[in-house]
């Protein structure tokens, strides 16, 4: 299920990014700034959990930055991150999925999650922030894409719409 769920995440992220690209920056600078901040946070959290999953040094001291990169940079980073997670989940063996990893959150508090729980957190975290982005898109007059799992399944497997 996680493999399919990360395929869904990549699909939903692409749809959100396409919609963000339609925001009129001159008319709705606050909406654009908010969406970029949300993307920045999403990418940073994904970077942090990637480091925890791979046992490498954490690349960020916090879950946000004062300076927010531009749309193109965030787009590239989010798409690459989603692809990395999708590949990792597809190759995840059950014993590795159940392995618990102890780490320190950026606020200094300790955490302990299994690899599977970390993957689920990244998936759920992205869904939450795409919801926030959808509101900003509404405020900017850009239709936010329907990005639920059921829309994904039926868009990528249209035969499922057929009556049995």
Automatic annotation (TrEMBL):
It holds the Pfam family DinB. Gene3D superfamilies: dinb family like domain. Transmembrane segments: none annotated. SUPFAM superfamilies: DinB/YfiT-like putative metalloenzymes (SSF109854). It comes from the Bacteria. Keywords: Metal-binding. Belongs to the DinB family. PANTHER family: PROTEIN DINB (PTHR37302:SF1), SLR1116 PROTEIN (PTHR37302). This is Damage-inducible protein DinB. The lineage of its organism: Bacteria, Pseudomonadati, Pseudomonadota, Gammaproteobacteria, Pseudomonadales.
